[in-house]
Amino acid sequence: MKIGMSHGAGGEVMQNLISDIILKNIKNKRVNGGVGLDDLDDGASIPLGDLEIVLSTDGHTVDPLFFPGGDIGKLSIAGTVNDIAVMGAKPLAITNGMVIREGFPADDLETIVKSMDAVCQETGVSIITGDTKVMEQGKLDEMIITTTGIGVVNKGEIKRDSSLKVGDKIILSGSVGDHGMALMSYREGFGFDTDLQSDVAPIWEIVEKALAIGGVTSMKDPTRGGLANALNEIANKSGVGLLVEEDKIPLKEPVIAVSEMLGIDPYEVANEGKVIIGVEKELADETLSAIRKTRYGAQAQIIGEVTEDNHVILETSLGGKRILEAPIADPVPRVC
User: Pick from 148, 179, 289, 315: CA 20 to 30 A from residue 95's CA?
Assistant: First the structure.
């Protein structure tokens, strides 16, 4: 087997690579009983007294580096903050490693760093250490940024993506498909008239407000593989099913238009500023109200509920039902 683009695009192919090659060959996967590598959550944890230190690391290879609504700098910080946030932890700090192509414009690098700093200032996160390398012309496509996030949560209060309970309601914080469709339309230069922008943004404020209500059971950000992959992952890991109402899933008109033109399912496309939250039924409406008052949560909806079924079932706009399967891979490569 040789590694292909689909091995890094989320979905079934990437999961098989992780299981068959990576996890199989690493023996030490956790520290002091915390969340570990083989849990395949959005982050890991190290218990420390009455607290748990939460960590998550991510490599960013988005193409192009600058896209409608953001750039690789904004994406790298927001994406890592979000992975910490969905574990229920307050993001505190970021480490930043950059590998840059020889000849890369210094002005572009400065713009990217300023974008990183803007997200840090918005979320109260600090970039506390880093590393910079330069590679020869022809050996690297522009640049790669690798960030590691550090957060903290009280011991026993981590939110796992495997903790849904039958009867929980599922909240989606906003419209889906924005990032992948904006990137694809801009990257390929199809020329259709749209003001569609990426949704890349930090979701910590949404998560913080939801946690304050007290009913959150599980969280996941629908990045690679999109909504379809994230819903299937949290359902499978929790040993439950989901019934989702298609009419409740927020979709912007430009996303619908672009997806129909390209033949791409918007439910399978990466998002970079959204979160799926499982909430106890009794507190779902109050949680939704709190989320809608945040900067990025105005379009939030309760899109479904947790069932005893073994599948993610989509109740379609036409009144029928179909299984919403996890994609083989995200149809839009190099989106994050």
Answer: 179
What is the torsional sign of CA 14, 16, 19, 20?
A: negative
Domains of the chain, CATH where assigned: 34-154 (3.30.1330.10), 169-323 (3.90.650.10)
- Using alpha carbons, select from 248, 249, 250, 253 the residue that is nearest to residue 196: 253
**CA 260, 8, 270: angle at the middle one, nearest 5?**
35
Residue 134: its H or E element: strand 126-135
| CA 205 – CA 32 distance, rounded (Å) | 30
Digit-coded pLDDT (tens) for 73-109: 999 999 999 999 999 999 999 999 999 999 999 999 9
Q: Indicate the pTM of the whole model.
A: 0.94
Rounded-to-integer distance, Cα 137 and Cα 105, Å = 13
Contact 98, 92 (CB under 8 A): no
Phi and psi torsions of 63, nearest 5°: -135, 120
Neighbours of 319 (CB within 10 A): 6
